[in-house]
Amino acid sequence: MVAEGDVTAGLRAVLERTRDELAALSWFSSVGQPPTEAETAEAQAYLMGIDASAIEAGSTGDIHWVADWAEAERVVRDPAGADWWAAEAELHEATLAKLGPVAASPGFTSALNETVHAVSDIVMGAAALAAARAGLAEQAVIRVAAGAAGETAEQVLALRLAGLAPDHPFEIKRRLYAGGRWPLGVVGRALAVF
Prior knowledge:
It is a single chain. This protein is 60% helix and 7% strand. It is mainly alpha-helical. It has one domain (4-193). A hairpin with a 2-residue loop joins strand 2 (183-187) and strand 3 (190-193). The longest helix has 28 residues, at 106-133. The chain starts with 8 loop residues before the first helix and ends with a strand.
């Protein structure tokens, strides 16, 4: 956990290290490809980590692998996914609460925003490249993809600053992105992953 007095040195060190790691990920490089068993296991762990009630006792979570950008756009536009994103936002708020007063300090907010913007520039280019390779030029879905990745960067930064475990759902989501995937959210009982 970052102490209030460490907002500059300790915070910057974690932010810079995480920014460099996130910048090097293979953002969106595997979207639309068949999943591996390991990716399916990670997706199920992410699903269970955000909402264990989404998985019945003794069964595994439903994972829907999205085939193309058009389907990805339909999934992210589906209002039925709002509950999932609300659960993620709640978990993110709980993560920030673990940071205590540091999370409310202007220095923290500024440093976090600066880091997220640096990563967002990278993921926007990666999303545009992946979409272009698939013949898609629709800027709206590219911006949504980049925004989702930027949000993940913010979540990962906060959980690392809070000193939370590597099996945290946001770290699992980062690993899905690291494999070139895009977790789209839950609609119904299935987690959609592109």
